[in-house]
Amino acid sequence: MSGYRVGAAIAEGDGYTIVENASLLGRNTFHVAARAQMLVDVRKPAALGELFGYAALRTQPLLVLGEGSNILFTRDWPGVVLAIAAHGVRVLADRGDRAHVRVEAGEPWNDFVRWSLACGFVGLENLVLIPGTVGAAPIQNIGAYGAEVREFILAVEAWDRRAGELVRIDNAACAFGYRDSVFKREHERYVVTAVEFELVRERALRLDYAGVREELAAMGIEEPRAPAVAEAIARIRTRKLPNPVLLGNAGSFFKNPLVDAAQAESLRRAHPALPAWATGSQWKLSAAWLIETCGYKGLRAGDAGVSGQHALVLVNHGRASGAEVWALAERVRAGVQERFGVTLEVEPLVV
Ligand code: EPU
Question: Per the structure, how many domains does the chain have?
Answer without folding.
Answer: 3
